[in-house]
Design brief:
Layout lengths: L8 H12 L4 H6 L6 E4 L13 H19 L2 E4 L1 E4 L4 H11 L11 H29 L4 E7 L3 H16 L11 E3 L4 E3 L1 H6 L9 E7 L5 E6 L10 E4 L4 E7 L2 E6 L3 H7 L6 E7 L8 E2 L9 H4 L7 E4 L12 E3 L6
Parallel strand pairs: 1-2, 3-4, 8-11, 9-14
Antiparallel strand pairs: 5-6, 7-8, 7-13, 9-15, 10-11, 10-12
Helix pairs in contact: 4-5
């Protein structure tokens, strides 16, 4: 291979590509009898709904450096490419191409489904060609001939087979968890998919009070999601922070000491008196009466449970926001 006198990255790239174009490097490595230790790289496949961007290219270069390092270290590396051709990103791109504006609500017939599937495959093939072209320009070492495709029957059937075996061996178990759901897409959403549409907005929060079941005192609770109040289960306080009992007219309120002054300014209360200061851990386990107890069917029955409508002391409670006491509704989030 000829070396250039002056540093010219484009010229160097051209010379290297010309030198390698007639050489089957992968075959040479595969036939090397000294490479006996076989290891396999499982490619975390890119989604076939767009062309590669700088972040993709960086990741692929890192992968190829790992491959080259292991080959030069004497290993025989199975380095197959992989393509993620299923899931929400490809479907959304297909809907956009077909002019579907209302999500799955516009897909009513078998013919509509077939059109969507066909368009998904068209998109996959279109972007796959671009990705392979970019891999070639990068000099990636992937084995494209043995690449796996997530939409192919043999891949899907193998996944189901592995899941069945995992279930039979007790590795995979059945349970319940709260997940985000998209009514338009008619599917659950991963954290990354939810974050794609995340936006910081100003939204009203709500203060409300709940009376302790065995004391003539009220917890002043704060929530940024008033719509979850119907499934309220607990009120959280920080065990290591100070709280105060405050006399407001004829009632005793419990508020975080750090936020007391700002809270009173927010609710426009000028006259109040601090009666006692204590740590949040003191409230652990105390039951309270939900303000909508008689309005929500069966809530009074559920409230009889020892671990329902109860104050809990947890380190994650932020005393620098709201009232220092937060509404907790596990049914509406993790």
């Amino acid at each position: 291979m000829e070396l250039v006198e002056n540093f010219d990255i484009k010229q160097i790239e051209k010379i290297v590509k010309n030198d390698l174009k007639d050489k089957d490097i992968s075959k040479m490595i595969d036939q090397d009898t000294e490479k006996n230790n076989e290891i396999m790289f499982i490619e975390g496949p890119p989604t076939m709904n767009g062309i590669p961007h700088a972040g993709h290219l960086r990741g692929r270069v890192f992968k190829d450096l790992w491959y080259r390092y292991n080959v030069l270290s004497g290993n025989k590396v199975i380095f197959n490419a992989g393509w993620d051709t299923q899931g929400l990103p490809v479907e959304l791109q297909a809907e956009k191409e077909l002019g579907i504006e209302n999500g799955k609500g516009d897909i009513a017939s078998t013919e509509d489904i077939e059109k969507l599937v066909s368009e998904c495959k068209n998109i996959v093939q279109k972007y796959h060609a671009k990705w392979v072209e970019v891999d070639d320009l990068l000099g990636m070492s992937f084995n494209q001939e043995n690449a796996y495709w997530t939409y192919k029957d043999e891949f899907i059937e193998k996944e189901w087979e592995l899941m069945r075996k995992a279930f039979e061996n007790g590795i995979m178990t059945e349970g319940f968890r709260v997940v985000a759901y998209c009514p338009s897409c008619q599917t659950s959403l991963s954290h990354s998919e939810v974050n794609q549409g995340y936006d910081m907005v100003k939204d009203p929060s709500l203060y409300y009070k709940v009376k302790l079941a065995d004391e003539d005192k009220f917890l002043i609770v704060w929530t940024t999601m008033p719509f979850t109040l119907v499934t309220d289960a607990m009120v959280g306080l920080n065990p290591k922070e100070e709280y105060v009992e405050v006399k407001v007219e004829e009632e005793t309120w419990i508020v975080g000491k750090t936020r007391l002054e700002e809270f009173m300014n927010e609710v426009k209360i000028e006259e109040y008196e601090i009666e006692r200061t204590f740590l949040g851990t003191e409230m652990e386990g105390k039951k309270y009466i939900h303000p909508l107890l008689d309005e929500i069917p069966k809530l009074a029955e559920i409230a009889k449970q020892d671990n329902y409508h109860v104050a809990v002391a947890e380190d994650f409670v932020d005393v620098n926001a709201g009232s220092g006491l937060v509404h907790l509704s596990p049914a509406n989030g993790e």
